[in-house]
Prior knowledge:
Blueprint: H1 12-17, H2 38-47, H3 50-54, H4 57-71, E1 75-77, H5 84-88, E2 93-96, E3 100-103, H6 109-114, H7 120-123, H8 125-141, E4 146-152, H9 154-163, H10 171-179, H11 181-205, E5 209-214, H12 222-243, E6 249-253, H13 260-264, E7 271-273, H14 280-287, E8 292-297, H15 299-304, H16 306-320, E9 325-329, H17 339-350
Parallel strand pairs: 1-4, 4-5, 5-6, 6-7, 7-8, 8-9
Antiparallel strand pairs: 2-3
Helix pairs in contact: 4-8, 9-10, 9-11, 10-11, 11-12, 16-17
The structure holds coproporphyrinogen III.
Amino acid sequence: MGTTAKTQFQKPLLAVLKGETQTPPPIWLMRQAGRYLPEFRAVRKEIGGFLDLCYNPKKACEVTLQPIERYGFDAAILFSDILVVPHGLGQHVEFRTGEGPVLEALKDAEDLAKLDLSQLHEKMAPVYAAVSEIRTALAQTAPKTALIGFAGAPWTLACYMVEGKGSKDYARTKEWAYGQTDLFQKLVDLLVEAIAAYLVRQIDAGAEAVQIFDSWAGVLPEDALKRWSLEPITAIAEKVKAERPETPIIAFPRGAGQLYESFAKIPHIDALGLDTTVPLDWAVEVLQPHVALQGNLDPIRMVVGGAEMDQAIDYILEKTAKGRFIFNLGHGCVPNTPPENVARLVDRIRNFSF
Ligand code: CP3
């Protein structure tokens, strides 16, 4: 087994984000805190509403740490949701059991004018408090685990804000983007400003890296993807780095295909989250010279487990782990993931012969 070279960083995740290769690579999983864990379901039941959990710093801290205690991941990701930002801008947001998020859909310029940036930080105060609490707890219990803050990207947030819920194709949002371009640009500009400020505050509260989730980038054709995903993410990264130059930024433009290359060339992006479809030889050749790679195990392989999962893990490690790499999924953990498969995954990666 390979041993990690001397490093100036105590935390493997930060070492990779700052330019080093670690063997074995650091591991964390998108949606690592969530319904597949019985201890999460217990807290969720006790609290009631999902947003109540997001805005309860003590409980948000507790569920953030659950997967760290169980599996010893190299990163903790703040327990929250991307939709707290629309909520903080004054839009009505609720999470209905079995239905997912429901928002009061934006219909026109008048609705857009009601969004109010001035209250964002006040409304997000419990989130910042959760970040501080998690950072303090990690220092005591898991000093090698880094804390990741996050936000949704403007395009993905706009999708939920305009549709009012999840959708297969986000056709209404595209109609706005293509048909009322100036108005849609206003919404995206507002989100760029809100998200950048929100991430800076998370960093000030204790986040050591931040991830920007653009889960629906892949529904856009090339020109629109550049305008509504690549450009706003570039703008956010620039703003955050102008204020907090030392904090690494991870982008997850899910479904961006060959345009992942353009994301890799954004000067202020330190790592790219690869979705399940990205070919790894291509990613290593074209993307890894510019950024650290993160991903891309299909979460359903972790549901199936056994040799099927093992082979897929080995394939990813053989292809990517010679360079800067962070093991993760290509999308979030699903609720029917057996917790023992997660333990097996961590064990396999940490004991792999590099
Ligand atoms: O990764 C983590 O462990 C941190 C927590 C986290 C959640 N959501 C918790 C959550 C993160 C990083 C997110 C991001 C998020 N939220 C994204 C981007 C990543 C992705 O998956 O593409 C998106 C698109 C959302 C919006 C969202 N939140 C949806 C569509 C849903 C409903 C679907 C579902 O899984 O239930 C949520 C709810 C949500 N966010 C839950 C959790 C744990 C489940 C709510 C519950 O416990 O009832």
